[in-house]
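SUBJECT: A protein chain and its fold
Encoding: whole-number codes for local backbone shapes
RECORD BEGINS BELOW THIS LINE
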Amino acid sequence: FIDAEHAFDRYYAEKLGVDIENLIISQPDNGEQALEITDNLIRSGAIDIIIIDSVAALTPKSEIEGEMGDSKMGLHARLMSQALRKLTGSISKTKCTVIFINQLREKIGVMFGNPETTTGGNALKF
């Protein structure tokens, strides 16, 4: 379980029936670290399922290290696109399933059509 949101509640998970003793939990510092951990776990062949919570919390390192208010357009989408290309190759060689949890956001100013969107660009949608 890749807890990019740093919000995992062990006691709540146990009440829901999660086998905590056999659960590996990682709380990475940034998006690149989370996706590298994911790739390493996939390549190990020892893990059957990986859940990444959440795509919205996979913040690029340069955004974390930058100043508040800095414009970092497209970094998140670029990170996800690159990671998915890399992970797809690793996943295809194993029996590992990777589940990405994402969040819905509202597009500001949309007058027609669906105003809902997801973070991380379009790569995950395909």
Q: What stands out?
A: DSSP finds four helices and five strands in the chain. The helical segments are 10-15, 31-44, 61-65, 75-92. The first strand starts at residue 2 and ends at 3.
